[in-house]
Amino acid sequence: MSSLLIVNAGSSSLKFAVYNLPLAEGAQAVFRGQVDGIGADARFFVKDASGDRCHDQELPKGPDLEAEHQAGLDALLDWLDAQKLTLAAVGHRVVHGGANFAAPLRIDASNIEELEKLVPLAPLHQPHNLRPMRTLMRRLPDVPQVACFDTAFHRTQPAIAETFAIPRAITAEGVKRYGFHGSSYEYIARQLPGVIGPRADGAVVVAHLGNGASMCALRERKAVGSSMGFTAVDGLMMGTRTGLLDPGVMLYLMDTRGWGSKELTNLIYKQSGLLGVSGISQDMRTLQESDAPEAKEAIELFCYRAARELGSLAVAAGGLDAIVFTGGIGENSPAVRAGILAHLGFFGVSMDAEANNTRGRLRIDKSDSRVALAVIPTDEEWMIAHHAQRLLG
Ligand code: AMP
């Protein structure tokens, strides 16, 4: 059986999905899994199509992080071998495509170097995204690889939506708003007509709410604005990331505590968001199950900030015909959806509480709502698999 492997490599994990070829519209992955805890207690596990764990393996400690990443990928490739799966191609999620890569890209040695130049734009993610490409080139030189960029879908944004109010020379270096979660938004844009009909081509705001969270304004199913900016830390409050933060706060901390970029990176990426405000957890489900007032406050702030960003993106979209929820929280938390929509009544939003509480309902608006409300499960891996299949024929 010929298969497609989709790889999403992070700093301490490597997630993957395997699809059978040819890839049909809406096809489910035959296997999904991850190498978890790289740098600590690394494990490699796989779930089959029905979600049952079919492989679980402890990985030995390596001499350094590099070796542990390598060992994780080797464990995955060995496991694929043992399943007698023949890889026809590998698709990679890559966080940053910069200003130039606006479409999926067939990877070769020379354009990996180009992608390497974008590391300063996403130092926490990009190096990890590129590492498996090199390993695969060495280990499976005949298997073609395709990169799909989180930023690519947003390249249709008008210049005004991309521009910070900073001196032109700095903008010219590429310091502008890019936007992320592009494969998720592209997948949702593809599903929209089937769920909301002709309004799909109007002004739509899609909320991808997961551990990382962002929103995208669509017009004619093309991106026209994003809550995320130069990096994936702007916009919404997230699991551990601040989202929008007055840069003056960082100057204050530099002046009063002598903080440098290491401490500030920790603050804005790792210690803030739901975790920082609750002091309990970054996990929405854990917070919803908690009775602590701090957990409630964190959820309220999450919803309030999301509603504020949504208002801003309605301006970018030039109206509000529909709101779509997706991502782990957007798909699974009726309370968060209701909490966000409660701020938006003046837009003519009217939510059907029963539909919102019914798992699997795609539409959650009342018939008199001026704004269509939808919950659409995203599938970033399918989107990447689709591009890999198309690009490689
Ligand atoms: P993601 O990054 O898209 O996998 O989303 C992870 C987030 O989704 C975590 O904060 C989870 O707690 C949250 N999540 C997943 N399932 C649920 C659920 N049933 N209720 C509330 N939050 C959930």
Give an account of the 3D structure.
It is a single chain. With 393 residues, the chain is an alpha/beta fold. The protein folds into two domains: 148 residues, 2-Layer Sandwich (Nucleotidyltransferase, domain 5), CATH 3.30.420; 180 residues, 2-Layer Sandwich (Nucleotidyltransferase, domain 5). The chain is 39% helix and 20% strand. The chain is built from 15 helices and 13 strands. The strands form two sheets. Strands 5-4-3-2-1-6-8-7 form an eight-stranded mixed beta sheet, sandwiched between helices. β3 and β4 form a beta hairpin. α2 runs antiparallel to α3, α6 packs across α15 and α11 crosses α13. The longest helix is centred in the last third of the chain and has 25 residues. The radius of gyration is 21 Å and the shape is globular. Bound molecules: adenosine monophosphate. Adenosine monophosphate (AMP) binds next to α10 and α12.
Q: Quick gist of this model?
A:
With 393 residues, this protein is an alpha/beta fold. 39% of the residues lie in helices and 20% in strands.
